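Please fill in the sequence for the structure shown.

STRUCTURE ENCODING:
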């Protein structure tokens, strides 16, 4: 059998998450409703050869520049025929973290990580660098199971941030890590009311969360757009490309063979998997998929994981007068509460990196186009609406990346296949910097059979809902976005 899409079929209630759920959920409902219409349509690409358009070549990514990626050694590709005990596909945080934990759990096994470009080239090296405490789907889970059980899940999720801290302190990975907490910002009274609900939920879990308004909010950050904020002391910001590039030598030192520039073209799953790459092939009885938004391109989770794209810009460094004009003295990541929200944070060298405002889906599950101008324009306008004090500030970098989403906004980390030998972590729904680190640990526990609070998390082997017919996704994405923007639901811009 060839590349089969472990259709591991593989499910929060804050305003932001509910509204994002509304957005994507509406898409899926619409798509499912039109299922009959599409009955005669042939699904594209049942047996993908080289994943088409795997990489964009227009990539003006500030994090890569700050990590000096251009001058770093990229490992040679896999050539010829090889055998391994464990093959990991994908050199993002899921793959890197899996490699880290598996190399410790199985010091004698041959572990090979295959990465199509270079470690950190996917979403892991392109994101906003928010290192969230918690993860997508957690707050809804709390509603379902109550604050006590919910707190356990929250605590387990802190593993990811702890793991990054260990990378910094124990392994010397320099990634501009700053544990400054997070701020959720409301742009109207409806959103402010939602923030109050969030505060109540967090407090019911015994977590600290402070509602800021008026003078207190102005002391934190000065934007005419924000009417309230919720300060959450958990979470961090970092340079994600530096983290990914820094994790590569850590896993290599632990004995993992890392092959970069190695595009996997086909996976034939079985008791022993056969993984064909552009220049070679490798077999292994255990496979780990660290592909997230790229997974459908390789034939995995096609009906479950929706690749949505996000776009990010980096300004020139601000002067001290400009920083004074906006405040933001605690340098935490700020995310607003709109359907198509922005996430923004300061950088170590005094810029603002901001992304969001749009989350386009491209036909055929295509990956982000680096120069998708409508999204870059939207996020640029949003920056200056948030901080009109900065009018005239130059935008020096703009880039995009591809994320994996589900209609229930819940990730899935698990094991699948007839032989229960395909491990995966997928669909972090735009909140994967810390949680993909946790996923790597869960994958290791699933392989060793070890049990802990992590392998008991509700995301383990979580059944992701079906997305509806692929051929109609683009139509429903556009219609749903248009409807939400028009109706103004949770959208104030
Ligand atoms: C623009 C943007 C902003 C984001 N902002 C945030 C944020 O601020 N905070 C947050 O928590 N999350 C954020 N996210 C989400 C977060 O980045 C992801 O959830 C996380 O990085 C996923 O990691 P991963 O390792 O699973 O996937 P990826 O990092 O995407 O790694 C997959 C890897 O697989 C490789 N690959 C793909 N196909 C093949 C193939 N055929 N052969 C070989 N290799 C292949 C790719 O090159 C890539 O390196 C953002 C994402 C994007 C795109």
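FILLED IN BY: designer on duty
SEQUENCE:
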């Amino acid at each position: 059998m060839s590349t089969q899409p472990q259709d591991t079929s593989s499910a929060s209630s804050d305003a932001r998450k509910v509204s994002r759920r509304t957005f994507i959920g509406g898409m899926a409902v619409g798509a499912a409703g039109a299922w009959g219409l599409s009955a005669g349509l042939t699904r594209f690409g049942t047996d993908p050869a080289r994943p088409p358009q795997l990489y964009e070549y227009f990539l003006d990514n500030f994090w890569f520049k700050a990590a000096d990626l251009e001058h770093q050694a990229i490992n040679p590709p896999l050539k010829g025929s090889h055998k391994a005990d464990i093959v990991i596909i994908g050199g993002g945080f899921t793959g890197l973290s899996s490699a880290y934990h598996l190399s410790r759990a199985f010091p004698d096994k041959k572990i090979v990580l295959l990465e199509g470009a270079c470690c950190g080239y996917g979403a892991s090296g392109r994101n906003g660098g928010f290192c969230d405490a918690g993860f997508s789907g957690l707050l809804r889970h709390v509603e379902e199971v109550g604050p006590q059980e919910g707190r356990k899940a929250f605590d387990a999720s802190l593993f990811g941030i702890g793991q990054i801290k260990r990378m910094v302190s124990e392994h010397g990975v320099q990634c501009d890590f700053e544990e400054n907490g997070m701020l959720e910002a409301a742009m109207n009274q409806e959103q402010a009311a939602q923030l109050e609900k969030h505060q109540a939920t967090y407090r019911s879990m015994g977590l600290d969360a402070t509602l800021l308004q008026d003078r207190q909010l102005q002391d934190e950050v000065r934007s005419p757009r924000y009417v309230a904020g919720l300060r959450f002391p958990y979470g961090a910001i970092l340079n994600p490309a530096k983290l990914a590039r820094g994790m590569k030598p850590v896993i290599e030192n632990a004995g993992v063979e890392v092959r970069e520039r190695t595009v996997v073209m086909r996976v034939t799953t079985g008791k022993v998997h056969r993984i064909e790459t552009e220049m070679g092939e490798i077999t292994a009885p255990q496979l780990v998929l660290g592909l997230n938004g790229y997974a459908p391109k390789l034939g995995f989770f096609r009906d479950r994981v929706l690749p949505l794209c996000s776009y990010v810009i980096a300004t020139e460094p601000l002067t001290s007068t400009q920083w004074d004009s906006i405040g933001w003295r605690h340098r935490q990541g700020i995310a607003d509460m709109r359907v198509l929200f922005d996430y923004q944070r300061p950088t170590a060298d005094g810029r603002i990196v901001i992304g969001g405002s749009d989350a386009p889906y491209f036909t055929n599950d295509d990956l982000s186009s680096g120069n998708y101008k409508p999204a870059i324009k939207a996020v640029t306008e949003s920056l200056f609406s948030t901080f009109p004090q900065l009018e005239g500030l130059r935008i020096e970098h703009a880039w995009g990346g591809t994320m994996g989403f589900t209609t229930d906004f819940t990730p899935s980390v698990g094991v699948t296949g007839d032989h229960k030998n395909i491990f995966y972590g997928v669909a972090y729904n735009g909140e994967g910097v810390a949680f993909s680190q946790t996923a790597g640990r869960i994958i290791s526990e699933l392989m060793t059979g070890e049990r802990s609070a992590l392998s008991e998390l509700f995301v383990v082997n979580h059944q992701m809902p079906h997305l509806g017919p692929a051929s109609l996704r683009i139509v429903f994405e556009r219609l749903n976005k248009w409807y939400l923007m028009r109706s103004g639901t949770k959208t104030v811009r």
